[in-house]
Amino acid sequence: MINYKRFWPNYRSWQRQCLxxxxxxxxxxxxxxxxxxxxxxxxxxxLIRIFPQAIxxxxxxxxxxxxxxxxxxxxNQELQQEVNISSNSQLNSYINxxxxxxxxxxxxxxxxxxxxxxxxxxxxxxxxTGGFVYVNTGLIKSADNEAELASVLGHxxxxxxGKHLLKQMREKAAINGIASATGLSKSKAVGLGVQLALxxxxxxxxxxxxxxxxxxxxxxxxxxxxxxxxFMKKLQGSSSLPTFLSTHPGASDRVVALQKQINNxxxxxxxxxxxxxxxxxxxxFLQ
Length: 287
Known about the structure:
The protein is 62% helix and 6% strand.
């Protein structure tokens, strides 16, 4: 028996990186070919259709913007089954108008951002990857003005800009041992991303980073920086702590950090603070 280790010291490494994934692909393709079209001859077009499904994986580190968008888009399809996306065209249009203005001034302006409203009375918002942001109707109603709502959208965009969910997915996949040498399979990546986005709070460090990024975006867009502080203070002081803050650590410390950032880099623009105009729009959109 030939000792491959003697002639090829890195044989095991080659097995893990090249041979094993190739075997997995071959097995997956065999299963697809044997089960998907049992009574038909397999033609070239069938192979083109089936093969990508058998091997599609997401490598969670070093993803391009387009790959990240693709992952976020597939998570969005899964989320349609988990949350009630609003069909209110006026409200969705309004949220996207605000979002597009923020996106143009964000740290990742080349991403194709998508903002969606979730029909849910809970005060909450969340984001996935590649530009997908979700905000509950309960949070929209809790905001006093447009600048406060924009501050929440900016914060969630900060999570996308910092690729925080991707980092969580890498860590969770490593702990659970569900990632192969080539990456994470499509179904596992999508399911894991949705689970983390809906249920697992971000780390303290990620929250501070999203606050910093969101505040910068808010100021660049011309919204009042004070709105991010006022909204967080208002929610923090409510009788029952809203979901938006109950899953986010150290709210009082974050207020102090935000105020310090404002003092160091003040913006003298105060757009979006008209409560009357905002409340009038909400009555029209949410009647």
